[in-house]
Specification:
Elements: H1 12-15, H2 39-57, E1 60-63, H3 69-79, E2 91-95, E3 101-110, E4 114-122, H4 131-141, E5 147-152, H5 156-160, E6 165-166, H6 174-190, E7 196-201
Antiparallel strand pairs: 1-2, 2-3, 3-4, 5-7, 6-7
Length: 202
C-alpha cells in the first residue's frame, strides 16, 4: 500500500461532486409563504432536474477493456488515490455517448472474504454530473455483502445515503485495521483535521 502520493481514502473522493451530494445537484432554498417555493425557484428546479436527467441519460456503464488499463492507472495517478490492486478486469467504466471514459470504479477483493468499494475516480471536468453516483449504484447493485470502503471523515454522510455506516476499529477486518493505524499516524504527523473513516454496507 505504500505510495508517496497515496492518501488512504477510496477513489470515491475523486469522483465526489463539489456540491456535497453524490448527485451533484444543488437544492434551491427560495420559498414563498403560499406554495413553499417561488415561481422563479420552481422554474429553476425544473430546469435543473431536466439538465441532470439529460446528463444522467448520457452516462453508460460497461466493463473496462484491456486497452483501457493504462488510462485507468493514469486516472488513479491523476487523482492521487490508492494505486494498488488495479486489475482492469475488475473495473467498471462510465462513458459518454461517444464511448469516452468519464470515470472508473471497482470492487476490490482482499483475500477471499473481504470486498472493498474502491478506485472510484472521475475526471475533473466531469465531476458534479452524477458520474460517481452512477458508478457507485452500478457496483452496489450486484455486489455481495458485506462491502467495505475507506474515505475521509468529511465524506461519511455521503456514503450513509448508500447504506454504509462507519465502524469502530474493533469491527474492522485486519486489513483495514492496518490501514487505519497507518492513516492515523500520517494524520497526526501532518496535523490534519481529516481522518480515515472505514465504512461497511451489510
Amino acid at each position: 500500500m505504500a505510495s508517496p502520493r497515496w492518501r488512504p481514502s477510496p477513489p470515491s473522493l475523486a469522483g465526489s461532486p463539489s456540491a456535497g451530494s453524490p448527485t451533484g445537484q444543488n437544492r434551491s432554498s427560495g420559498r414563498s409563504s403560499s406554495t413553499g417555493s417561488s415561481p422563479r425557484s420552481s422554474s429553476s428546479s425544473r430546469r435543473g432536474w431536466c439538465k441532470h436527467h439529460l446528463i444522467m441519460s448520457t452516462i453508460k456503464l460497461r466493463p473496462a477493456r484491456e486497452t483501457e488499463s493504462s488510462q485507468i492507472r493514469d486516472l488513479i495517478h491523476l487523482t492521487g488515490i490508492n494505486p494498488m490492486g488495479l486489475d482492469w478486469r475488475r473495473f467498471v467504466v462510465a462513458v459518454d455517448d461517444r464511448d469516452q471514459v468519464l470515470g472508473i470504479g471497482q470492487i476490490k477483493p482482499h483475500g477471499t472474504d473481504i470486498l472493498e468499494l474502491a478506485s472510484l475516480a472521475v475526471y475533473p471536468q466531469h465531476r458534479g454530473k452524477g458520474v460517481a453516483r452512477a458508478i457507485i449504484e452500478h457496483l452496489l447493485k450486484d455486489s455481495p455483502r458485506p462491502l467495505y470502503l475507506m474515505c475521509e471523515s468529511s465524506l461519511g454522510k455521503l456514503y450513509e445515503k448508500f447504506g454504509f455506516r462507519g465502524i469502530p476499529y474493533e469491527e474492522m477486518p485486519r486489513y483495514f485495521q492496518r490501514i487505519s493505524k497507518l492513516a492515523g499516524l500520517a494524520t497526526t504527523l501532518a496535523r490534519r483535521e481529516e481522518r480515515l473513516l472505514v465504512m461497511k454496507l451489510q
